[in-house]
Design brief:
Layout (H helix, E strand, L loop, with lengths): L7 E6 L6 H5 L8 E5 L5 E8 L2 E2 L36 H5 L4 H11 L3 E5 L14 H19 L6 E3 L1 E2 L5 H15 L3 E4 L15 H10 L2 E5 L8 H6 L3 H22 L2 H4 L4 E5 L5 H20 L7 H8 E5 L6 H8 L4 E3 L13 H8 L2 H15 L3 H14 L6
Parallel strand pairs: 1-5, 5-6, 7-8, 8-9, 9-10, 10-11, 11-12
Antiparallel strand pairs: 2-3, 3-4
Helix pairs in contact: 4-5, 5-6, 8-10
């Protein structure tokens, strides 16, 4: 808990081990994946190359411009200084090589009851068009098997969402079914970038939408910048600052437009969709813009729609914040605090960890913060029983000592 309030981290990250593919990838695909190695010939963190192409275009763009020395930064966000890489706030995790013990330590520092885990390297692992579907599946299976094992350190507190081989919707369905039934996944994550040009309202995705409903698990959109198939690369070129600002909002907006106007929410009323790591101040204005065009286009272009944009959003959607955004209270008044959730974004460089929860409590009234802290429970379908198990797990094992 945080200050007596239940707290589900809707989007906490892991740092995958360098030898993940060496240990978990199907051997028949290993010659198609190469990783950086050290002088001991063992894998180390660095560029991953799949079928001759790095997993992210950012390794080839603008690396020489990255700040390598400590220094001041300018931001209107409260406590933004805690986001600097040189603060030492992650020393405890580095010392433990970002293992599951460190994950639970980070949760204790923020007051998180249950955390839903997302990848770091894995966000870009299959983020390209025209990837061999069977290789895509093998990569996803390797990650999913590893993250399942990672969560076994404290399975009632550590949950995960599955990586899906989206280059073939039927393979994706099979992997989702395996992950939910056999491994305990609480949903899936998918980047909002179009895959092989398939729009989000395309029938290509129908089997996967339906299966998410039937399994009662969450579909999470999570952007990451640097994907080869992102239109932001074409629009904004090599400047990562430009692309990072644009992609996290614009790609999310395009996905939400498609889901509403294209009828995904109309035909899949029980589908729960999360918009993660893109803040959410963009949502109210976009919903108003769609509604502005309803009188002109609804009857002629989308006669199947039976609800207003805001009604679809409030029924099907949640959008995440990271605690320090100055627009949180105003946004809550427009879309409802119960349709918001919060991410610590641990252990990423632009996270305010370990001050995310404290920032939120400082930033908004307690009753609004309480709903946002609990938003992830509604999003992922966690009940009082889940919290009771999480409490029992924390009590039996005890929270690891804080660093």
């Amino acid at each position: 808990m945080k200050d007596g309030l239940r707290f589900v981290d809707c989007d906490m990250h892991v740092m995958e081990p360098p030898d993940l593919f060496e240990c978990y990838l199907d051997p028949k695909f290993k010659d198609r994946v190469s990783t950086a190695v050290g002088v001991d010939s063992r894998p180390r963190r660095g560029m991953i190359v799949i079928d001759g192409l790095p997993t992210t275009m950012d390794v080839e763009l603008q690396q020489y411009r990255k700040r390598s020395r400590p220094g001041a930064t300018l931001s209107t966000q409260p406590l933004s200084g805690s986001r600097l890489a040189d603060t030492g706030r992650l020393d405890f995790a580095v010392e433990r090589n970002y293992n599951a013990e460190a994950q639970v330590m980070g949760m204790a520092m923020e007051g998180v009851d249950v955390a839903v885990l997302f990848p770091t390297t894995g966000l870009s692992l299959i983020a390209r068009d025209n990837l061999d579907p069977l290789l895509s599946l093998a990569l996803c299976q390797a990650y999913n098997n590893w993250i399942h094992d990672f969560c076994q350190y404290s399975p009632d507190r550590l949950k995960f969402v599955a990586m899906l081989p989206v280059h073939d919707a039927h393979l994706a369905c099979r992997e989702l079914l395996r992950c939910v039934r056999d491994l305990g996944a609480v949903g899936s994550f998918i980047r909002p970038n179009l895959v092989n040009g398939h729009y989000w309202h395309s029938n290509f995705w129908e089997p996967l939408y339906t299966l998410h409903e039937e399994l009662d698990v969450t579909w999470g959109f999570h952007e990451g910048t640097g994907a080869w198939y992102s239109q932001m690369n074409v629009l904004y070129g090599e400047n990562r600052f430009y692309r990072h600002v644009a992609s996290h909002w614009i790609e999310m907006q395009q996905a939400l437009i498609a889901m509403i106007i294209g009828g995904v929410f109309e035909f899949h009323p029980r589908l729960r969709v999360a918009f993660l790591e893109g803040q959410n101040a963009w949502a109210p204005g976009l919903l108003s813009r769609i509604e502005w065009d309803y009188p002109q286009y609804r009857d002629s272009h989308a006669p199947y729609l039976s609800l207003t944009p805001k009604e679809y959003f409030r029924r099907n959607c949640w959008a995440a914040v990271e605690g320090s955004e100055p627009e949180i209270e105003a946004t809550a008044g427009l879309i409802g605090a119960d349709r918001m959730c919060i991410s610590t974004d641990y252990p990423h460089f632009d996270s305010n960890f370990p001050n995310v929860a404290s920032n939120l409590l400082t930033n908004v009234p307690r009753e609004i913060a309480a709903q946002i802290f609990l938003g992830g429970a509604q999003l992922y379908g966690f009940t009082d029983a889940h919290f009771q198990k999480a409490d029992a797990a924390a009590a039996v094992g005890g929270h690891p000592a804080k660093p």
